Amino acid sequence: VQLQASGGGLVQAGGSLRLSCAASGRTFGTYGWFRQAPGKEREFVAAIRWNDRHTKYADSVKGRFTISRDSAKNTVHLQMNSLSTEDTAVYYCAAGSRTWIVGAMGQQNLYDYWGQGTLVTVSS
Fold first, then answer.
1. pLDDT at position 26
2. Of 2, 32, 57, 123, which sits 20 to 30 A from 101 (CA to CA)?
3. Which residue in 43, 21, 18 sits closest to 94, CA to CA?
4. Cα–Cα distance measured from residue 89 to residue 124, given in angstroms and rounded to the nearest whole number
5. What is the block-wise mean pLDDT of the chain (124 residues), using blocks of 10 residues?
6. What pLDDT is recorded for position 120?
7. Cβ atoms 103, 41 nearer than 8 A
8. b/e per residue, 92-103, with b = 16+ CB within 10 A?
9. Cβ atoms < 10 Å from Cβ of 112
C-alpha cells in the first residue's frame, strides 16, 4: 500500500493550489489531510469518507479548502483557495481502513497509512 502526495509548491498569498493523494493497492474507508508547519505539531486539515463523501474540515480552513475524491483514479484531492502565509506547511495525506464517524475523522491515530508529505509555501 502506498499513498503518493503531490501538488505542493510555492504560491503567493491569495492564490490557490490543488493537492492530490493517489492510493495504490486498495481503497480505504476514510482519507485525511494533515499539515505540519515549522516548529509546530502536525494538525488536522480535512477528511472525507470514501463511500458517502461526508467531509470534515478544521475551522481554520473552512470555506477555503475543499476535499474531494475521484473514484476512477483512487485519488483524493485538496483544493486550497485564498491561501495565506499561515497555510505554509508540509501537507500529509493519510488513509484509514475504516469508515469513521464524521466527528472522529480529525484524529490522527485512526489513520493507518501516511504519505510522504508535500511542501506548500505561501509567500506574502
1. 87
2. 2
3. 21
4. 14
5. 94 98 91 97 98 97 97 95 98 95 94 96 97
6. 98
7. no
8. bbbbbeeebeee
9. 14
Whether 87 contacts 70, CB under 8 Å: no
DSSP assignment of the chain equals: -EEEEE--EEEETT--EEEEEEEES---SEEEEEEE-TTS--EEEEEEETTT--EEE-TTTTTTEEEEEETTTTEEEEEE-S--GGG-EEEEEEEESS---GGGTT-GGG--EE---EEEEEE-
Q: What pLDDT shows up at residue 25? A: 81
**How many CA atoms lie within 13 Å of 42's alpha carbon, on the beta-carbon side?**
16
Residue with cell string 469513521: 100
